[in-house]
Amino acid sequence: MQGRLITFEGIDGAGKTTQLQWVRSWLADAGWARSLVATREPGGTGIGRHLRSVLLQVNDEVLDDRAELLLYAADRAQHIAQVIEPALAEGQWVLCDRFTDSTFAYQGFGRGLEMGLVEQSVRMATQGLQPDLTLWFDVDPEMAAKRRQDRAGGGTDRLEAAGLAFQKRTRQGFQELATQFPGRIVQVDGNQELEAVFVIVKEILEPRLKQWLSEDLMEVS
Ligand code: TMP
Question: For the chain, what are the domain ranges?
């Protein structure tokens, strides 16, 4: 049995976290006969939770862009070693809220760091591990900003505070990544009601999951 990694991506306010939770319940309830792990970056481990607060808390001290890149990489290396790899080795399906595409989109396109540096940091953290499938929830940055404002009790974190132009560049980054990796990244129109988006998500996932299960069966027989 082969484990699989499904990642959920998009700009802040894209609705990906809700979709991930719904997918998790749907997969568990529908008895897909595979154990699941739902996790996230940054902050999928105890060490990662410390890193997440350094990364996201608004602070008087300015976090250097390269330091930011390296902290995301550190979070990911720990997360892969402690959570993702062991789960995949047991044949589990891993649902991950953000992964490497976020680093290319945010640190590469958003911050404008040199892509070679971003690639190096990603390679060091992942040692080549790539998602089997990525759902990119594409929303209009202005609409996403409104959603974030409406979010009950939600404060603004450091990346959200980077502004609309930053979110626009980041969205553009996801767009370019989707063009570069059309087999892996599936674009989902996230501008609709969350329930309507979830219908699309299930339509995308169902054939893939069936294919993976039949590949596993072939492996066993
Ligand atoms: P979240 O609130 O969706 O969990 O994401 C945390 C923030 O971290 C979000 O603004 C995106 C940002 N981020 C990056 O800038 N680079 C990365 O590699 C990751 C994983 C997240």
Answer: 4-220
Spell out the residues 6+ positions from residue 117 whose beta carbon is closer than 8 angstroms to its own: 66, 69
User: pLDDT over 70 for what percent of the chain?
Assistant: 98
Q: What is the pTM assigned to this prediction?
A: 0.96
The response to whether residue 12 sits with its C-beta less than 6 Å from ligand 1 reads yes
- The number of residues making up the chain comes to 221
| 152 or 48, higher pLDDT | 48
Q: Which residue has the higher pLDDT, 31 or 7?
A: 7
For residue 204, the surrounding DSSP H or E stretch is: helix 194-220
In the sheet with 36-40, reading across from the earlier edge strand, the strands are 36-40, 93-97, 4-9, 133-138, 185-189
C-beta of 9 in contact with ligand 1 (< 6 A): no
**Distance from C-alpha of 118 to C-alpha of 116, rounded to nearest angstrom:** 5
Q: 166-175, pLDDT tens digit by residue?
A: 999 999 999 9
Give me the CATH code for the 4-220 domain, please. Answer: 3.40.50.300
Q: Count other C-beta atoms under 10 Å from residue 221's C-beta.
A: 5
Tally of helices (H runs) and strands (E runs) in the chain: 9, 5
**Substitution site in 79, 98, 171 for ligand 1 pocket (most atoms within 8 Å of beta carbon):** 98
